[in-house]
Amino acid sequence: MNTSLLNYTLHLADTTLILSQRNSEWCAHGPILEQDIAITNISLDLIGQSRYLYQYAAKLLNPVRTDVHPGGESANNSTNATEDSLAYLRTEREFKNLLLTELPKGDWAQTVLRQFLFSVYQYLLFEQLQKSKDEQLAAIAQKSIKETTYHLKWSSDWVIRLGDGTEESHTRMNKAIETLWEYTGELYIAVDYEIESAKNGTGTDISSLKQQWIQKVKDVFEEATLQFPIDRFMQTGGKQGSHTENLGYILAEMQSLQRTYPGAEW
Q: Are residues 252 and 116 in contact, defined by beta-carbon separation less than 8 angstroms?
């Protein structure tokens, strides 16, 4: 089994799942009905992406072996992993999502800013992943980038609208930047499985995305009359299983049914 490919796939899946869970907290609580529907649809897009990735990770974990036992029976190396078990039966330390995605939703400014910062990164990532030597990852990226293009436009518009809006909305956007910025460095600081995946052509050299990400964020911040932050210490660890206390609460809520009634189905 290609461990780096598996971990890379789980990282992508975990990141979109956790952000989807956070965004879904706005369902029926959006500032206006139209945007309530919009953020809910974005959540559904993200959970759809995570499903494709978890299904692929489960396939990687359940290889079909062709060797035969002395008794003549085929050996089965299956772990019986499924998209549900990967989402609902793993602990905090096993999750590899970006720290940015697990932070509390905060107010509307914090939610749309996080979606913008992540969508810029995800668009650039999927743009490159479409060229992956791994056909499955390339196909997922090709399908998902259409949704990500909309997420980027929607969140960009809101960052500009709030940043260049009233004194109150401008203040809230600056507060959101102050809260989230130290978690953005992890977007393009590669860990071992990302480095290995980039080397063998299945993944992307995420460090190469940094300047494009910075330029896009700067362009939108300038239009939104927001100041681009100066360099500061960046929080890392999520990709390797070291998380904030927030992830435990997310998983407790998200996994409660499956852990209480193992194997439950609708």
A: no
